[in-house]
Structure formats: C-alpha cells, structure tokens
Input
Amino acid sequence: MKFDWTKKGCALHKQAMALGTILVSALLMTNPAQAGSISRIEASGSQITVSFDDLVEGASTFSLIGPNRIAVDVKGGKAGHGGYATGIIKSVRQGQYSPNTARIVFDLDRPAVITNGGFSNDGKSLKLSLRAVGQNQIASGRKSFLPPMKFRAEPPKNNYSVKVPLGKPRDSVGLPKIYGPNDPSRPLVVIDAGHGGHDPGAISPHGSAREKNVTLAIARAIRDRLVAGGRVRVALTRDTDKYLVLEERYGIARRLEADLFMSIHADAAGNETASGATVYTLSEVASDREAAKLASRENKANIINGINLGGATHDVSSILIDLTQRETMNISADFAKLLHREGSRQMPFRKTPHRYASFVVLKAPDTPSVLFETGYLTNKNDVAFLNSRQGRSKVAAGVASAIESHFARKLAAR
Ligand code: ZN
Output
C-alpha cells in the first residue's frame, strides 16, 4: 500500500477549533454572497436532503455513538431552524458551530451510517443516503462532499476578520521542536513524558526507578523510532527533567495543532504481582474503580503543597463543543485498540487493556489523546523491561507501528 501522509481530512475539524484556543476571531462583517443558509432539512426513509438558499463551500459527515447520531458540517453555511424527520432519524437539530460552519445533528433511532451522497448540479442541495447497520459497524472519520466547482462558494477572505490575542496565560511554556520531515502536511504526534521536575511520579520499591525518568526515556525512544520511520512529525512536551502542569501538556499539542497526543506513564501498585500495560482514554465515567483511582492519582500532579497549579477545567458545556469532544473520544478509543493490537506484539498488556477514566491530561476537546501506562514500577519484570534500552525499543516499536497504522487507516477511510 502506498501512503500519502497528508492530513487534509481533519483540516475542517482542526480549523474550526484552532481559533478558540489562542485567538478569538471577531467577524466584523460577513459576505452574504458567501454564506448559504440552511433553508430546509428533510429526512425520510433512508434519504436526507439539506437545501440551501445560496452557495456553500462543502460539507462533511461523521458518526457519533452513545447515543447514535450523525453530524453534518456545512462549510460556508449559516444555520437555520428546525427540520423534518421520520424513519431511522428521530429528530434534527442545527446550530452555528463556528463563524463559517453550520452543524446539523441527526438523532438516530437505531445505528446507521451515511453510505453516499452528493450536491445537486446547482450546488443548492445536498442529498445523503443512510443505511441501518450493526452497532459495531460504525466507524470514525469523515466523509466529505463538494458542490460542483462552478457552484461552490469561495472561503471568506481573511480581511473580513480580526484576530485578537487572548492574553498569554499558557505562553510560559515555549513550543517544542518538531522532529521529522519538514512538511506541515504530515500528521503531527505529540508525545508527553509524564511527571518531571519536583514531581517524580511513581517510584519503584528500591528507588532504582522513578517514573519521570522512565517516561522521558520511553518518550525519546518513541520519537527516535517515528523519526526513523519518516512518515509522521513528532514533538515532545518535555525533553528535560522539568515540571509541566497537566493543561500545559495538552496545551502544547493544541497549539501545535497535533493530530494525536500520547501521554506516557508507568504505574505503581501495592501488589507487586500486578504487571503489564494499559491504555486509557477519556470518559467522565470511569470503567472501574481502579481506573478512577489511577486518574485521581495522575490528576494530583497539578497539586503541589496543596495549591492547584492547573487552571479551571475546560468548559465543554456547549453542546456543539461536546459533540466535537465525542468525535475526538471515538477516534481516541479506536487508536487505543490499535495500540493494544500493535503493542501486544512487543510487550505484555493487562487482561483489560483499554480502560476509561477522567484524566485531566486527556481533556483537549479537539486532539485525539491516550494515556499509556506502560507497566508497573512495582513489578520486578516490568521495571527491568522498561528500564532497559531493549525494552524501551520494543515499546517504541509497538507504539510507532500503532501510530503509523492509525494514520494509514484514516487515509483509507476517506
Ligand atoms: Zn504517572
């Protein structure tokens, strides 16, 4: 298979969110000729028709689970009101997701996916076909549709917007160096070595290994392996023994507009027989008590001498942001499965290799993120493995293979 390592597919998703982080885009005026409003949404049987009163730039669709929904982002579109639905679709909602993107959400009665679709010849309506499927046939990723060239709205010109810097609360951390191909279209992975500085993390019983050193050595090994592969770009949140609050860690990934964020850790347990790796993804509801306890331990990294050094938790109250986060969580969960599949060829995993919990470091709403507990510093075999060059290179091989498969899969899904 030949890979084209570009990231055009997620450009929409990124673009919409990127403005919110560092810049606020204030639209002084919108060009009415360049924003078609959604004038009508009709869904019956297995057909959805979205009509516009003027030209739009394009549309993309993606699936969300728990509950099952299909979202349609209309670029260069303005949201209207309401919509009519029967059949598989229970209800329709729409809202202005960003100044240039309208989002329509279809709540589904049972699992279904968009099989195909397209714009009409005059670019003023979008037809989508729907098919009921099994719950496990719902895949992450977007399908994109473009109107015919002649009837496609131009993206708004930059001189219609003013960008206002939002202060510099997080700028105390300079952005790290990006390694790998000097090509911004390649996917960018940010590897975060957990803990650091005055926060050692877990310590092995005889003091021979500190989590902060183990995680840094593993992060470097992963970076070197990815750079040698030549397919993706990679950056480390820290390449020295320094302390970062949790928000700074994913903040770096967001500011770099990373396509994937991975935080590396090594666990400790009272029971020294506990061993093997686990990959965690974000959920407000922990998959079990142990996962919840681990998350609260890792989240304590922000609290030094009783003072919480992290900022307020992310405001994800808006339903539209929440949907983005869910999409991100689905992609993260898919990657977690891939990491287990590829990683378990190189190193031992626990019986339940993928778990969920509310880790602060995974809370970037727009960056797919996993926390990788590579093993137990309280277990003799694990600590010897993680502390050896050979062990680390196996971890790096598994992680790199998962990352490369992840981006190849995203490409194939397009
Ligand atoms: Zn840790």
